[in-house]
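Hello Y.,

Per our agreement to keep a running log of every chain we model this quarter, I'm adding this entry. I've kept the format consistent with earlier entries: sequence first, then predicted structure.
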Amino acid sequence: MEEKKWIKAAKQGDNQALAHLFKESYPLLVHYLMKLTLNREEAEDLAQETMTKAIEKLNQFQVKSKFSTWLISIGTKLYIDQKRRQKRADAFKAQHMRKLKWQAQSQNEDWDFLLASLAELEDELRVPIILKHYYGYAYDEIGKMLGIAEGTVKSRVHRGIKTIRKEMGEDEKGPGTMENPIKQG
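Predicted structure for the entry above:
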């Protein structure tokens, strides 16, 4: 059956036709998105999101191009939207960090290098450190908040602090302790 017939059948609710179209187009889509994102996991997530969007918009597809071309256009738009959101989030984060720095300086407090270092950590490391060392939550409480095991929280806090110390050129036994490596604020 040629592609136009598969598309017509899929539009009429034939799930096997839709599955066939996706099966035929998925490898091309993922390879394209891998080149775009330079990250296999991100490409596969984006491909899944593209497929979901395609299912939602299937009746709007005009058969002027190949189905795979349509999927690529959807994936590209989703990727661009994702990058725009990330850019806005990064700009907000940078603005927020400038605001925190200004507030600290205006109150004659030291702007700690640690805050800047915290901003550079991945969320999975930064969040547990902030909850533990700035807000005093116990490891088990943090685990419940984040939906992860207590041991995972401990590991992430340790790994994050180790990363910050390495950035600062300090070894494991440098200033600060594992109990309070970050100035409370």
